[in-house]
Amino acid sequence: MKRKEIRCIVLEYDRLEELPEEDRRLLEQARQASAMAYAPYSGFKVGAALLLENGTVITGNNQENAAFPSGLCAERVALFHAAAQYPDIPIRTLAIVATRKGEYTSEPVSPCGSCRQVMIESESRQNKPFRIILGGKDRFLVVDKASDLLPIHFDHRFLK
């Protein structure tokens, strides 16, 4: 038997002002996207904003459906839109925020497993990791790559 340890580095910021200006702008766009989410069942509105290498920003928000689980998370809406419209332009950063009853969550919201898997596939597709910013009301977490959020993941090597 081998014992392996998996580590990831997470940067934690206690104030929005501590983040670089580019990250603050991206978080603001994610916040704006969350306001347009369709979440009549959960009331949990999530917004995502992707910054592409060419400076383009793509936003997404969660879209619920009465026929659960036919809805889609904000992260996947943004990632799939970017892949469909800008397939050859790498993602540089993804910011994610959530609100409940009109208030930002006090803690940063973490992506679901499906979104984490799609993030990893997006990194694999572009052959390059991207930063992920998880935003709360007064606390922010930043990781350098999706595999930091899902270290033991399914990937294309299993399909060969």
Please give a structural write-up.
The chain has 160 residues and is an alpha+beta fold. The protein has a single domain, classed as Cytidine Deaminase, domain 2. Helix content is 26%, strand content 24%. Strands 1, 2, 3, 4, 5, 6 and 7 form a seven-stranded mixed β-sheet that branches. Helix 2 runs parallel beside helix 3. The protein is globular and about 50 Å long.
- Provide the number of structural domains: 1
Helix content: 25-40%
CATH class: Alpha Beta
What gyration radius follows from the Cα positions, in whole Å? 16 Å
N-to-C SSE string, H for helix and E for strand? EHEEHEEHEE
Which range does the strand content fall in?
Answer: 15-25%
Helical/strand content category: alpha+beta
Give the averaged pLDDT, no decimals: 94
Task: Work out the helix count.
Answer: 3
Number of strands: 7
Unreliable stretches covering 5 or more consecutive residues: none
Instruction: Give the distance, in angstroms, between the N- and C-terminal Cα atoms.
Output: 26 Å
CATH topology title = Cytidine Deaminase, domain 2
What spatial form do the alpha-carbon principal axes imply? Answer: globular
